[in-house]
Write a structure and sequence with these properties.
By secondary structure, this protein is of the alpha+beta class. The two termini are 32 Å apart. It contains 9 helices and 12 strands. The longest helix has 25 residues. A hairpin with a 7-residue loop joins strand 1 and strand 2. The strands form 4 sheets. Strands 1, 2, 3, 4, 5 and 6 form a 6-stranded antiparallel sheet that branches. The chain has a two-stranded antiparallel ribbon with strand order 7-8. Strands 9-12 form a two-stranded antiparallel ribbon. It folds into 2 domains: 111 residues, Phosphorylase Kinase, domain 1, CATH 3.30.200.20; 186 residues, Aminoglycoside 3'-phosphotransferase, Chain: A, domain 2 (Alpha-Beta Complex), CATH 3.90.1200.10.
């Protein structure tokens, strides 16, 4: 899992950013870090008064073909009215630029700087706009996967990236050990009846820009896959439940707004709880892996797990 390996990440310098922008015939004025996440490096870069967003992918995370699929899908969504940033082509008309810097090759993408700002908490009005956008994205993603003959990915959801390491390090007869054993044994079967398509799979408060409670840009399609679309929805609903401003009542409201555009099948509704619980396990194990995880954090995560398993929580 490259995003957990610091040495796979690009370390920017004035020299290297200048070399990348030269591929676009753009002189570098200055740059600064923009990313909030733990995976791809994202920078703001200025050429004169013009502000751009530069994204540099980790080493060996994605093939060129995978990144081009991501960019083409973003362009497809933009063509159909969804607010994704415009991709800037290089001077030789490439969406993806591969730059060799100090004997290492880095995959680079330059985008327009979108209007809006990150928000610190969900509001009902913002979620009312996010839900139909996600539904539209799912409809377009299902159609796109069919017309482009894109094969579906995983048939199961199972956390494997860091769980063995965490289990080996956890004390025996502890709440953490018991939790990790439950994570290790948890598998979500994705049966063939679930509608599939390309989608974002990280559509949350960190990956949208907003203005006046309206989404102005959908960011970071780095987790793009062809999977059952309810997985993307379930991942978002974890955030609506547990991130700042979220609540079970807003999950109900979000699903109503979503289904005004795209109706969920009975099987999708039945699978939602398992998908949200899986998302909880992934997010919690990654947080534990990074080490900044107190006993209070564990207690909170265990309570959230109990809430997700409760029959009182319905969709």
């Amino acid at each position: 899992m490259n995003k957990l390996i610091p040495e796979s990440l690009f370390v920017p310098s004035q020299k290297h950013i200048r070399a990348i922008l030269a591929c676009y015939n753009l002189p570098l004025t200055r740059f600064e870090h923009a990313t909030r996440g733990i995976e791809n490096l994202t920078l703001f870069a200025w050429s004169g008064q013009k502000k751009y967003v530069l994204r540099v992918y980790p080493q060996k995370k994605k093939s060129d073909a995978d990144i081009l699929l991501e960019l083409n899908f973003m362009s497809h969504l933009r063509k159909h009215g969804l607010p994704t940033p415009a991709i800037i082509s290089s001077s030789d008309n490439r969406l993806l630029v591969v730059c060799e810097l100090d004997h290492q090759k880095w995959q680079c993408v330059l985008m327009e700087h979108a209007q809006g700002a990150h928000v610190e908490a969900f509001t009902p009005a913002l979620l009312d706009h996010m839900a139909p956008l996600q539904a539209q994205m799912h409809i377009l993603g299902e159609q796109y996967a069919k017309t482009q003959n894109i094969a579906s990915g995983r048939s199961v959801l199972q956390e494997t990236s860091v769980i063995d390491e965490l289990r080996n390090n956890a004390a025996h007869e502890s709440d953490l050990r018991d939790f990790l054993e439950r994570v290790n044994g948890f598998v979500v079967e994705l049966d063939d009846s679930l509608p599939k398509g390309l989608s974002h799979f990280d559509f949350d408060i960190d990956n949208v820009l907003a203005q006046n409670n309206r989404v102005t840009a959908i960011l970071d399609f780095g987790d793009l896959e062809c999977l059952p679309l309810v997985v993307c929805l379930g991942y978002t609903l974890w955030d609506v439940l547990f991130e700042k401003g979220g609540s079970p009542a807003l999950v109900t409201r979000y699903l109503q707004k979503y289904q005004e555009v795209r109706q969920l099948s009975r099987r999708e509704k039945e699978t939602l709880r398992e998908i949200i619980l899986f998302r909880h396990y992934v997010i919690t194990t990654v947080r534990i892996h990074f080490g900044d995880f107190s006993q209070n954090d564990l207690d909170k995560a265990l309570q959230q797990e109990q809430d997700l398993r409760s029959p009182e929580l319905s969709f």
